[in-house]
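USER: Please consider what follows.
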Amino acid sequence: MSNETELKELVKQKYSEIALQDKETNQSSCCGAGGCSTEVYNIMSDDYTNLEGYNPDADLGLGCGLPTEFAQIKPGDTVIDLGSGAGNDAFIARRIVGEKGKVIGIDFTETMINRARDNAEKVGYNNVEFRFGDIDNMPVTSNKADVIVSNCVLNLVPNKHKVFSEVYRVLKPGGHFSISDIVLKGELPEKWKKIAELYAGCVSGAIQKEEYLGIIKEAGFENISLQKEKEIIIPDDILQQYLSAEEITSYKNGLTRIESITVYADKPAKDERNCCEPGSGCC
């Protein structure tokens, strides 16, 4: 993997393909990015089917948590979903905010945006909007959202500092986020970091859990807490596509673990840092 632009293009290309895949294919792979497993399903994702507002047409099986379940969304809230895909989390959020609230999904893959807009039209929601754009440079005015959610997306973005700076900018003072993502404990095999499929598949783009939480704190958030944690087990038939038998044994016997976390944090009601606008580079 080389620079941010190339990484973004890789993810955009891959997720344009993923948008056209069925849910079962995505659930039996690493976030849909190839390496399908015959051993297990739901490698990353949690089950949405019992949540109110669930729309099967919008569920591509790409998540690694249930951030909307933990996000403390209230009727009338404005909610932004980062990396909204086909609209799964956005529609769950819409069920909670009701007709007086608003949900904005942001995605930089046109195929996903088109699919999400089609799904919104089918259910007749006029207060769910999907915008094309980068989540590290959101097409949203400052202090807009009461709540931000995201599901297994930020690990795909090379500059995570910039994303959380944007999250801070877009949230209203006193607003909060609940984000599900993939993080690491220990170092991945060096080979994994060079495999494009595994970057698009949420694995080699993940960073250390403590570093991830540190970026959130550095961005100015408070009351940071882990709402859920679970280990991600990648089946042998996927590992065998990228690693030798010896490398698989070494990985399994090592200390490296891939985890899904759902993390919550508040934007302070008043910023006491005497700093300029987040994202400008002075913070």
